[in-house]
Design a protein that fits this description.
This protein is α+β, with helices and mostly antiparallel strands. It contains eight helices and 18 strands. The strands form two sheets. Strands 1, 2, 3, 4, 5, 6, 7, 8 and 18 form a nine-stranded antiparallel beta sheet that branches. Strands 9, 10, 11, 12, 13, 14, 15, 16 and 17 form a nine-stranded mixed beta sheet that branches. It is globular. The structure holds pyridoxal-5'-phosphate (PLP) and 2-OXO-4-methylpentanoic acid (COI). Pyridoxal-5'-phosphate binds next to helix 6.
Length: about 350
């Protein structure tokens, strides 16, 4: 197709693979934004009903019409993935096919132009390669966080799909989402006054609005000394949904891996990989509704996602009562295995990693 021709041409201009440079304190990286060489940008126009070949742009600011759909009606979706500098010195990305599929599920839900998988992959390769010196060195504990996002950039006044969409890929080197203190565990609080997502709302896609809606609950949780919110289902307020920016997973007294199954939860790619690794280790894996009552009896609880990997949950507070979870053994084992695969220390049996 025409797009494939354009992408093939762009491939010839991919920058060389470079070594880590400039940042000296890689071990101290926070989960934040550092200046990089630039980002990749593609534009879709209703005039041609197609995407352009994309550009690499150094300026982190952009010009947009004041009536762009994203500014008023929240027409935006994002993804999160990571690139790692592996034991052999090469840079690999993890499970991108899942991210591109999830973005397109969201694009259909928000009536935005889908992003072809090839274009998604190429844009990520381009952004990572052109910023290769910002991929943290092997052994530093850091990684490159990749943020692909899609938004309605064309002007509209009445509520309707946008005449123009922009797809971008930005990157930044990061450390742990919860910081160095994560080893001692994160303290969660059940959000009693707000719901995250309705059963048939947009909780199952990575729409920007889901995160805006979580800001006040999160602010209140942090003011109470907690690290994250935990949401229950909006309909019955009985089943566990997920944390602020990560899925819920638990290990039962019988050693089973349990994770909530619900249409209003974001289908976490990390969770999917951990379920596979748990099966590989012979554990029983159960994606099913999980009541808060049941959670109180669990041996281990974790919060999983691209940014958090698998963070131990030390406690969950429900009103005045604090339930503590002491162990983090099975989940820690799974976390270590996933990280070893990502860093190329352990065989990638499921074909998740791809060299950039
Ligand atoms: N749930 C929410 C609400 C998230 O924001 C994230 C982060 O991406 C996740 C779960 C974890 O998903 P993934 O493992 O695909 O990063
Ligand atoms: C991720 O884990 O990649 C996310 O998208 C969560 C984000 C709020 C940092």
């Amino acid at each position: 197709s025409r797009l494939e021709g354009k992408l093939a041409e762009a491939e010839a201009h991919l920058p060389p693979r470079t070594e880590p440079a400039r940042i000296t304190n890689w071990e101290e990286l926070a989960f934040g934004i550092l200046p990089t060489n630039g980002h990749v940008r593609h534009t879709w126009s209703s005039k041609t009903s197609s995407w352009d070949a994309g550009r690499f742009i150094r300026d982190p600011y952009m010009n947009m019409h004041i009536h762009a759909g994203v500014l008023h009606y929240g027409m935006t979706l994002f993804e999160g993935c990571k690139a790692f500098r592996c034991a052999d010195g090469r840079i690999r990305v993890c499970n991108l096919d899942e991210n591109s599929a999830r973005m397109n599920t969201g694009a259909a839900r928000l009536v935005m132009a889908p992003v072809p998988k090839k274009m998604f992959n190429k844009a990520i390769d381009w952004a990572v390669r052109a910023n290769a010196e910002f991929v943290p060195p092997y052994g530093s504990g850091g990684s490159m966080y990749i943020r692909p996002f899609l938004m309605g950039s064309g002007p509209i006044l009445g509520l309707q799909p946008c005449p123009e969409f922009t797809f971008m890929v930005a990157v930044t080197p990061v450390g742990n989402y919860f910081g160095k203190g994560v080893q001692s565990g994160v303290h969660a609080v059940i959000c009693q006054d707000f719901d995250r997502a309705a059963p048939r709302g947009t909780g199952g896609v990575k729409a920007g609005g889901n995160y805006a809606a979580d800001l006040l609950p999160l602010k209140l949780a942090k003011a109470g000394g907690f690290g994250t919110t935990l949401y229950l289902d909006a309909k019955e307020n009985q089943y566990v949904e997920e944390f602020s920016v990560s899925n819920f997973l638990g290990i039962t007294k019988n050693g089973e891996y349990v994770t909530p199954h619900s249409p209003s939860i974001l289908p976490s790619i990390t969770n999917k990989m951990l379920m596979q690794l748990a099966k590989d280790k012979g554990l029983t894996v159960q994606p099913r509704p999980v009541s808060w009552e049941e959670v109180k009896t669990m041996d281990e609880v974790g919060a999983c996602g691209t940014a958090t990997v698998v963070a131990p949950i030390a406690s969950i507070t429900d009103g005045d009562v604090k339930y503590e979870f002491g162990k983090f053994e099975v989940l820690n084992e799974l976390r270590k295995t996933l990280m070893a695969i990502q860093l190329g220390e352990e065989e990638d049996r499921h074909g998740w990693m791809r060299e950039v």
